[in-house]
Inverse folding.
């Protein structure tokens, strides 16, 4: 199951579900068309796919995304906007272009780095224009992703009526 949530209200605005053998990336594809214009989607690191991300922002007006950068990601710096703020070029692979016909060979995104308590956090975003989207406005946005976890907890508590539940990490044990 994959859900899309409006952060301030914790309302589920979209969802897709299937059997446990269906990959979450596949489910996320189903939410592309229903994502509202003039929005920002905060993705978990596990949803990194240039095809998915490019489709997300190109199937609407002013639809953006923000995702943590995976370790070891290879990129080329196109332009530097200042310390810890760069425009970078990522190369897509032939398999991804076959799956996502609209995917270009090279995708330009923005890399923003934040150092907090000595730890470095890198995020990628489709908000590439530093005049429209200043680094200072973007740098702390991913912290709001925690609101998603709080929203899920609220949904589960409401749906289950605060009953005690047993949880398992394996489908066979459910």
């Amino acid at each position: 199951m994959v859900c899309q949530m409006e952060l301030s209200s914790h309302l589920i605005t979209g969802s897709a579900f299937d059997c446990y053998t269906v990959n979450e990336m596949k489910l996320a594809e189903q939410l592309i068309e229903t994502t509202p214009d003039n929005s920002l989607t905060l993705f978990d690191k596990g949803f990194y796919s240039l095809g998915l991300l490019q489709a997300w922002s190109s199937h609407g007006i002013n639809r953006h995304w923000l995702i943590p950068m995976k370790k070891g990601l290879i990129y080329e710096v196109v332009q530097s906007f200042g310390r810890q703020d760069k425009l970078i070029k990522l190369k897509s692979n032939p398999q991804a272009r076959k799956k996502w016909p609209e995917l270009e060979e090279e995708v330009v995104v923005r890399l923003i780095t934040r150092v907090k308590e000595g730890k470095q956090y890198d995020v990628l975003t489709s908000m590439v224009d530093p005049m429209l989207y200043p680094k200072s406005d973007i740098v702390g946005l991913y912290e709001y992703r925690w609101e998603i976890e709080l929203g899920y907890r609220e949904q589960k508590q409401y749906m289950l009526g605060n009953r005690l539940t047993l949880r398992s990490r394996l489908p066979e044990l459910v």
Observations:
- The CA atoms of residues 26 and 145 lie 21 Å apart.
- The longest strand covers residues 106-116.
- Residues 146-160 form the longest helix (15 residues).
- DSSP finds five helices and eight strands in the chain.
